[in-house]
């Protein structure tokens, strides 16, 4: 299997909303974003599949070393061998990849965030930087487009957090800020138990509605930041944004039933949203 085939298989297997946006890119840009996405999946899987923190920490350390070696001219992992020929052309820097690894290390080292600024710092590493790299690969003329990409990355990561409250609780993690749990009178043990009926309450619904409203506001702010000159180039990012926002609306329509299930859109619906964005241009 070639490195290119490896990253393609990694992206396709994930079933991610990102994959559907990649399909509409020219071949060279599609290979670049697929390789970068495969890198993100590899390091994220280290955390998601971790059974022992020490082992996961060692794996992240290996990835950090592999990134340094790859930018020194000797990549060994198929993901890095696929990605490295694209780095100069699309402005992918060693610091970008190291930031993603640092974000995954945060997942290993802490499972609570005291307030929204603390959560935002984490989201910057695992989503804002990813958005920046993606917007460079998609193509941009203006520096303001990076601001749009960071804001959009935050909106999408908050949508992930809303969707994954139950999955994260099963792993002992709570990404919703502690200060906001306290604001709405929701106890951490209620989320961790993930039980009906008391896991769901008016307090929980109010908390989740607050999270959703903030995510919607960030989507709107991101769209407002995108310069008209770069809108057509950033269409793949808009596809992903529309898929995620439809997911957020689906979660809202279901009454935030996220403790015992993981809401998702069907592959056909994701493809339809991506295609509609391509046709309409927004």
Structure description:
With about 280 residues, the protein is mainly alpha-helical. The chain folds into two domains: about 1-110, Farnesyl Diphosphate Synthase; about 110-280, Orthogonal Bundle (Farnesyl Diphosphate Synthase), CATH 1.10.600. About 70% of the residues lie in helices and about 0% in strands.
Count the beta strands. 0
Number of domains: 2
Named CATH architecture of the largest domain:
Orthogonal Bundle
The end-to-end span amounts to 37 Å
Query: What shape does the CA trace take?
Result: globular
Superfamily (CATH H level) name of the largest domain: Farnesyl Diphosphate Synthase
Rg, alpha carbons: 19 Å
Q: In a few lines, what is going on in this structure?
A:
By secondary structure, the chain is mostly helical. It has 15 helices and no strands.
List the helices and strands and how they pair.
Blueprint: H1 3-14, H2 17-22, H3 27-48, H4 53-71, H5 78-83, H6 87-90, H7 94-109, H8 116-138, H9 144-163, H10 165-170, H11 178-184, H12 188-193, H13 202-225, H14 235-253, H15 267-280
């Amino acid at each position: 299997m070639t490195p290119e085939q490896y990253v393609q298989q990694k992206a396709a297997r994930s079933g991610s909303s990102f994959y559907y946006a990649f399909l509409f890119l020219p071949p060279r840009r599609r290979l670049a974003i697929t390789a970068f996405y495969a890198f993100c999946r590899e390091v994220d899987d280290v955390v998601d599949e971790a059974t022992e923190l020490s082992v996961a920490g060692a794996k992240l350390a290996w990835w950090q070393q592999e990134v340094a070696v790859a930018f020194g001219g000797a990549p060994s992992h198929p993901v890095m061998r696929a990605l490295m020929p694209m780095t100069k052309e699309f402005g992918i820097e060693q610091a970008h990849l190291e930031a993603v690894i640092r974000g995954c290390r945060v997942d290993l080292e802490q499972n609570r965030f005291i307030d929204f600024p603390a959560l935002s710092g984490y989201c910057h590493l695992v989503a804002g930087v990813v958005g920046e790299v993606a917007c460079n690969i998609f193509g941009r003329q203006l520096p303001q487009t990076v601001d749009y990409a960071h804001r959009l990355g935050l909106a999408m990561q908050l949508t992930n957090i809303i969707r994954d409250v139950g999955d994260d609780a099963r792993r002992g993690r709570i990404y919703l800020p502690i200060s906001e749990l306290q604001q709405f009178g929701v106890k951490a043990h209620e989320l961790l138990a993930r039980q009906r009926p008391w896991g769901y309450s008016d307090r929980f619904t109010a908390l989740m509605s607050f999270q959703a409203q903030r995510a919607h506001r960030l989507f709107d702010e991101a769209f407002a930041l995108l310069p008209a000159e770069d809108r057509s180039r950033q269409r793949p990012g808009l596809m992903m944004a529309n898929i995620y926002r439809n997911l957020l609306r689906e979660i809202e329509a279901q009454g935030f039933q996220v403790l015992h299930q993981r809401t998702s859109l069907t592959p056909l619906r994701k493809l339809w949203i991506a295609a509609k964005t391509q046709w309409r241009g927004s």
